[in-house]
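User: Run a structure prediction on this.
Assistant: Running it now.
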Amino acid sequence: MASADLPAGTVTFLFTDIEGSTRLLHELGDAYADELAAHRHALRDAFTRHGGVEVDTQGDAFFVAFARAGKALAAAADAQRALKGPIRVRIGLHTGEPLLTEEGYVGIDVHRAARIAAVGHGGQVLISQATRDLVGAEELRDLGEHRLKDLTAPERIYQLGDHDFPPLKSIDRTNLPVTATPLVGRETELAELLALLRNATRLVTLTGPGGSGKTRLALQVAAELVDEFQDSVYFVSLAPVQDPALVAPTMAQAAGVRDLDDLRHAEALLLLDNFEHLLPAANEVGELLAGSSKLKLLATSRVRLRLTGEREFALDPLPQAQAVEFFVERAREVKRDVRFDDSVEEICRRLDGLPLALELAASRVKILDPPLLLERLERRLPLLTGGARDAPERQQTLRATIEWSYDLLDPRLQRVFLCLAAFRGTFSLDAAERVATADLDEIAGLVDWNLLKPIGQGRFLMLETIREYGVELLDASGESDEIRDRHLDFFLAFVVEAEPNLTGPDQRQWYDRLRLEQDNLREALAYACDSGDGERALMLAGTIWRFWWNRGYTDEAGHWYERAFAVEEGASVEARARAVFGFAHVSESRGDSEQTLIRMGEAADLFRQIGDTRWLVLALTHLAQAHAALDDRVRSESIDEEALKLAQATGDVRGASIVKSNVAFHQILWGGDRDQAASLLQEALEGFRAVGDTYAIGNSLMGVAALDLQRGDLDVARGRMRESLELSSSLGDAHTLVHSLVVVAATALARGDESACARLCAADEALCEAHGFELEQFERELFDETATVVRRSLAERADAEWAIGSELDLDAAVDLALRALD
């Protein structure tokens, strides 16, 4: 159902459910299908006649929305009258003002309507107070206030008609606390926890970082199980308890018994909330469980209890979609007109989907609209205060809840925690051991306390909301410079090791490793620049140039080079040479030939000075390119000749292939012998294949394919372009991919696929602008010719196709290009 077809504003929701559907299935056998079909027909007919819009149907249950409460009530009455036979249906109605998104309705009103239906019996129609206020009291019977399993304040419920039914299946016989709002999201986790406790598991510990919503989820699990334990469900709040010796008396008091021995034969569920600071009492809890047969325990803790038979259930932050729903729902409690927009999505992302952080941020929308709130989230902890006064003190600010976890650590783990705050994003175990001087047991200890999250492949993540607290501790520790120095040294050494491998047979692996460490590389560069360490700033920025170039991070690269050169005093010749070379690539990608000439010339002089021939070959041939772009053919050819001789003399197969490839493109630029250019490109391609350089192979194939296309060898060009796109995609090589689109566009035009051609031209244009790329002259000529022809051919359709193509991101554009080559 499209959201545009759903009622908006004040909406009455109607939920249905069949009573005893499993029993009926067994009793009726094959006849159940016919009865179910008749039931569905009768309900749909009644709902449609009264203007109901079917939102969802799952199994034997209906979810229907009405623009008017009176129509919903009439539909429910007609539906019950129409039902014949053994199937008996319970119906619940509730009215509210839900948020209507592209995915459908969002908000507590939906949850409440479903809960009202769930407490009824077959043949019964139940109505909330909100709906009753709109339809009046006629024909409604007041059933009094009832606690629903959403655990919010009791709801006054009314029944349509005077028929007698058993008492409603509410949860009035439990000490589970009232919550402010229903549980939002967590459907998967709720189902998994219920399955564990309904089966043989007798102790489940729900773990997670502070503010992840452990208590609220555990309360919902307990509420769902109230009817399944003969001696009920008991909530045991351990947050106020400071002495482990008082855990047993607190448990007994919550369950209404004199001591724990009285619980050994009880068929009950105990929810032990916030156990992390009382771990010495865990053994006593384990003994109670071992001495009973029907008792089950559900605990919340930031660390597992380490008891026999314990099943740990680690709770992650909310996924993005659920985080957005959670934030909007909480924000609308303080400002009714809050709506979903891009700033809400970014707020939820920056707050790591952590429910407490989202709740505290949502409380601020009363005075700060989401876009303004987002601007102030650069520093999270000072902003995220002001929780509910009746919440535990440590849950009234995000800092307090993180501090609570930190204070429970032993001193060694506290120090490791603040050291690990030097990392940004994810990090490897090796990096943690080197930078934080931590061992595996200490890392595991922080994982146990949910201050670190393992994410696979030996890598770990500290949520940014938690890391910010760690950074405060690090900055105040007196060890910050020492620890950040180790962090910078580690990642500088990593980049120096990676650089020569980015052109060899293992380059995919190294590109992936650099991508994983990108946030840490930025952190290391920022520290080097902020501390005035020109040597390491220039060396790091200069050595990583190829990664930035291939990924299309032109603007970011320019930012770091400018910062690094601002603190270069005292830097070595090698560090400056690499940085000047990298910065020259920024100029080259932007089409600034004058600056490229100046910077590449300086880089070549510096590499000569230190005798680094591998880098010198690259600097010379890029210098030749700059001269070619300025139409200085004599100088360009002379420098390329020097570069080729140097590469051949030093056995640099890849360097020689780069020079040959560039010479070929220069010949095309000057209208030279294209057969000779093709031969040079083929020689270069063979050299690149010999050294296993995936990047260069993909780039060369694009050039060879362009020549094939101009010679009319369409099928050969298609095969080479497909291989080029696949190789470049495997590396995430944005630079080559964007430059390839114009060649594929021309290929598509030659094959008569005008739509793909126009869209690829538009995508190429937009992506060049987005990445700061400038097409080479021969590429620009090919683009202009192709775009002119396809626009003329498409006539009035051209603008529409161009508009579609300009919206494509790089992945979508490459997918289109590959389809165009089929």
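The radius of gyration is 34 Å.
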